[in-house]
Amino acid sequence: MDAASPPVALAIAGTDSGGGAGITADVRAFTACGVHGAVAVAAVTVQNSVGVSGFHAIPPDVVADQIRTVAGDMGIDAAKTGMLASTEIIRAVVAAADEVGLGTRVPFVVDPVAASMHGHPLLADDALGTLRDELIPRATLVTPNLDEVRLLVGVDVTDTDGAREAARLLVGLGAGAALVKGGHLEGSPEVVDLLLTADGSEHVFSSPRRETKHSHGGGDSLASAVTAGLARGMALPDAVALGKAYITRAVDHAYPLGAGHGPVSALWSVADWERQR
Ligand SMILES: Nc1ncnc2c1ncn2[C@@H]1O[C@H](COP(=O)(O)OP(=O)(O)OP(=O)(O)O)[C@@H](O)[C@H]1O
Ligand SMILES: Cc1ncc(COP(=O)(O)O)c(N)n1
Questions:
Q1: pTM, full prediction
Q2: Which residue among 98, 145, 161, 232 is buried most deeply as judged by most CB within 10 Å?
Q3: Keyword Protease: yes or no (predicted)?
Q4: Is the dihedral of CA 174, 220, 151, 166 positive or negative?
Q5: Using H for helix, E for strand and C for coil, what is the string for 213-232?
Q6: What are φ and ψ of residue 41, in 5° steps?
Q7: Which of 13-17, 120-124, 242-246, 266-270 has the lowest mean pLDDT?
Q8: Which of 110-127 are b and which e, b meaning 16 or more Cβ less than 10 Å from the residue's Cβ?
Q9: For strand 108-110 and strand 36-47, is the pairing parallel, antiparallel, or unpaired?
Q10: pLDDT tens-digit readout, 9-63
Q11: Is residue 272 assigned to a domain?
């Protein structure tokens, strides 16, 4: 007898040839969190642990068609965006999202990726306004890091009050909720991610800060684990709690790889499985 079909989550994002971030991290998180991962590739990056040396943006209509063709066959229970590269791709994603109900019938997580952790740009400068004005208003949840917060709403977050103010402004852009991630707030012993929903409810997710430079793909992994929770029908705070639990474990198991920043890891799930074999 066939197994029951799992929920389907769709990642609309870029590839990472080094396998640390982007769509590779997304699909690992989807699998580890119990959903089937489908993908709409928006860009192919030439990337390793040291940085991004180039990328090729996929034609916008091909990005949109990947979304439509998955929706039309297997259905989409939740979707997330990562690297979208250009204004034209964002507009194509917005058009397809509206057609298939992302952000209305289907939970839609927007991770507003602007640059890699090495500081290499993954979004054209002139695309930030389109991301802010056309994509974020469709988001069930937007998940910026502190650099993206600064770019999107001009707030320099240094503490929880600043994160709260930034989240309020992000929700003011039209997102259903904002999760302001505190990974970049070096110096604090806890990593605090703050969730604010449009109805004003606030949830704080805190975990011990791990001393590691190997956190490549952390933001993608968190957003994808939250998306998996939403695809499974969880309420947003529960889905974010799942995402935080997943990323905390993945940072705990992050490993060095290459000369630069190694990835956060989902390989503990394989070790668990082998122990039980
Ligand atoms: N040193 C750390 N220890 C534990 N958790 C961390 C650490 N750094 C980041 N995290 C967690 O990882 C997630 C991603 O946070 P971060 O603010 O680094 O986003 P990001 O910049 O988009 O990620 P990245 O650039 O690493 O892909 C958050 O849930 C954060 O709490
Ligand atoms: C294709 C792609 N998408 C997203 C990121 C951001 O991840 P990080 O901030 O860990 O470099 C990346 N480096 N590459």
A1: 0.98
A2: 145
A3: no
A4: positive
A5: CCCECHHHHHHHHHHHHHHC
A6: -80, 125
A7: 266-270
A8: bbbbbbbbeeeebbbeeb
A9: unpaired
A10: 999 999 999 999 999 999 999 999 999 999 999 999 999 999 999 999 999 999 9
A11: no
Among protein residues, the one with the nearest Cα to ligand 2's atom 3 is 22
15, 44 contact by CB (below 8 A): yes
Closest protein CA for atom 26 of ligand 1: 218
- Ligand of minimum distance to the alpha carbon of 223: 1
Residue nearest to atom 21 of ligand 1 (CA): 145
Average pLDDT, the chain: 97
The proportion of the chain whose per-residue pLDDT surpasses 70, expressed as a percent, equals: 100
Ligand nearest to the CA of 143: 1
Q: How many residues can be counted in the chain?
A: 277
Residue 124 counted as domain residue:
yes
Question: CATH no. for residue 108?
Answer: 3.40.1190.20
From the alpha carbon of 83, which atom of ligand 2 is closest? 3
What residue has token string 């905390």?
A: 248
Please classify residue 30 by burial: count the beta carbons closer than 10 Å to its beta carbon, then call 0-12 exposed, 13-18 middle and 19+ buried: buried
Is 233 strand, coil or helix?
coil
Residue 216, pLDDT score: 97
User: What is the residue range of 234's domain?
Assistant: 8-266
In a domain, 215, yes or no: yes
Tell me what the mean pLDDT of segment 181-198 comes to. Answer: 93
Ligand 2 center from residue 115 Cα (angstroms): 7
Q: Is residue 187 pLDDT above 90, yes or no?
A: no
Q: How many domains does the chain have?
A: 1
